[in-house]
Q: What sequence folds into this?
């Protein structure tokens, strides 16, 4: 309903401006724009590692390859769902997406260790498609060197109610203009020698 009203208002404004002889340029879309502004942040932490520290081997391809436990604070008023993306910007291809999880209940304040890779995990939410083309989490597995892994949590002002399997880009497009706040946790990983 909110989007329909927005489109109606924009349509009326364009009609009015055109009738008055003015020029109108449609604003460019910003997929990751935060509705609440840059000050709208959430705290995202893990009991498995501190921000900027190495991610334990248990959560990587060299270990059990299970997702680490995560916790976050209260999302802003108006949050209807949460989404999580984990990626590695240091991958040889420029980026490798390790986890896409969306439609998490707004009442959740964390995820336990080892979230299921099923399309609909018992903890809630819906798994998307990672960079390996599979559902759910896949742990750090850098070909060489130390890589950074970013977990980003998004508070969204509506329930996406999307089918399983969205990619990171599809999820960001679906959330565009509806992100109320964002939290970030970064850990590093290098494979044992």
A:
């Amino acid at each position: 309903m909110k989007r329909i009203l927005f489109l109606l208002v924009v349509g009326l404004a364009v009609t009015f401006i055109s009738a008055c002889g003015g020029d109108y340029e449609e604003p460019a879309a910003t997929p990751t724009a935060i509705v609440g502004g840059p000050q709208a942040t959430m705290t995202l932490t893990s009991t498995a590692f501190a921000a900027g520290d190495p991610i334990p081997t248990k959560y990587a391809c060299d270990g059990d390859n299970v997702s680490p436990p995560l916790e976050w604070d209260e999302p802003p008023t108006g949050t209807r769902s949460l989404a999580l993306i984990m990626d590695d910007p240091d991958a040889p291809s420029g980026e490798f997406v390790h986890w896409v999880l969306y439609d998490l209940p707004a009442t959740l304040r964390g995820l336990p260790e080892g979230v299921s890779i099923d399309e609909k995990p018992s903890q809630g939410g819906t798994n998307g498609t990672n960079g390996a083309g599979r559902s759910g989490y896949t742990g750090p597995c850098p070909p060489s060197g130390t890589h950074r892994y970013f977990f980003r949590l998004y508070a969204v002002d509506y329930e996406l109610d999307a089918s399983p399997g969205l990619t990171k880009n599809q999820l960001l497009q679906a959330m565009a203009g509806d992100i109320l706040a964002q939290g970030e946790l970064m850990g590093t990983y290098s494979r044992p020698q």
